[in-house]
Amino acid sequence: MLIHYKKSYEKIAMGLLSFIPSEKDIRVLQQTISRYEEEEPWQLFLWKDGEDVIGVIGIYRDEGSDEAVIKHLSVNPSYRAEGVGKKMICAVDKALGEQVKLLPSDSIKGYFDSCFQNNEEKETGI
Questions:
Q1: Under a CB-based contact definition with an 8 Å cutoff, are residues 37 and 43 in contact?
Q2: Which PROSITE patterns does this entry report, sorted A to Z (predicted)?
Q3: Of 16, 22, 53, 67, whose CB has the highest number of CB atoms within 10 Å?
Q4: Mean pLDDT per 10-residue interval, the chain, length 126 residues
Q5: Which domains does the chain have, with CATH numbers?
């Protein structure tokens, strides 16, 4: 289940984001979390499986823009290869609505493309 990030999930979100190679440095990680907490165009979502938070996905979308870019995507290693990343992408895409196109950043483009080898699959969801 996709949920919006709240300050009470800060440590969990930081832990999940730290699996991303570019976010290993604690200062970089703190700046990333601050950006999601303080800057309107940056939105962070968590993925819950039962009571466990197992994934995080962050997007950037300028107000009024018809495009949003996935900036961060991370899944707890214990849950990888189970389709969690794809489920998060589809859930965010659905939450944004049909008027907003969800695009991958360069850092996740390869993963994104492997999840959605044709546009039809993304449109129908999971």
A1: no
A2: GNAT
A3: 16
A4: 95 96 94 95 96 96 91 94 93 92 92 76 44
A5: 2-124 (3.40.630.30)
Tokens of residue 37, six digits: 């907490």
Q: Is 56 exposed, middle or buried (0-12, 13-18, 19+ CB in 10 A)?
A: buried
**Hey, which residues does 59 pair with through a beta bridge?**
43, 70
Structure tokens at 103: 């695009």
DSSP letters, 51-90, are TEEEEEEEEE--TT-SEEEEEEEEE-GGGTTSSHHHHHHH
Q: Do residues 100 and 62 lie in contact, with contact meaning Cβ atoms separated by under 8 Å?
A: no
CA distances 42 to 38, 70, 115, 119, 120, Å, are 8, 10, 23, 25, 27
**16 sits in which H/E element:** helix 10-17
Residue 87 vs residues 3, 116, 121: alpha-carbon distances, Å: 13, 11, 12
Give pTM, 2 decimals: 0.88
